[in-house]
Amino acid sequence: MVLSKRERLILVATITVLMIFAVDRFILTPVLDARGEILNQKQELIREMEKASDLFKQKGSFTPKWEEMINGGLSSDVSSTESIVLNALRAWAQNYGLILSSIKPERERGQGGKIREILFNVACSGNMNSVGQFLWQIENTTLPLRITEFQLGSREEDGKEMSLQMKLSALYLAEGSMQTVSDIQPSEGGE
After folding, report:
1. Superfamily of domain 73-183
2. Statement: residue 185 has pLDDT above 60
């Protein structure tokens, strides 16, 4: 079968278009998709590297705080930590004229890692100034202690007699952990 010049031109154009389509479909598109995926992975790795670099830069500012916490009462003995916090809470309440209704420690179970926590449920009452000073003392202590929840109420309409219920979290080192800052790395984001 002899093809005319026009038919040969149409056949060549059709074969060329089919080849271009095949090259695009089976070679070019997969290569471009793989390249895009690699670029996305590269951007993700760059973000992770910048995040790690920022964490190393911030280590210098965290080190004094960790030293202060370790020297201020971060202990590897859970009973010792519990005793230190209980005594501190009682002393602060007495200093500021608060009446402690209850202090109940709750030891956390099943936590992993080098740093663990004990929760304390505290209920007390006193005047507004005493409650404010007590809260300020807890927030500014060198003990590894923070307020996780609190509820403040007034027994009277004038607000002179306040009641405070709160949950505190105290940190301690797990058994066998070293008490040096170089061994303890702060968690990211601080919760």
Report:
1. Ribosomal protein S6/Translation elongation factor EF1B (3.30.70.60)
2. no
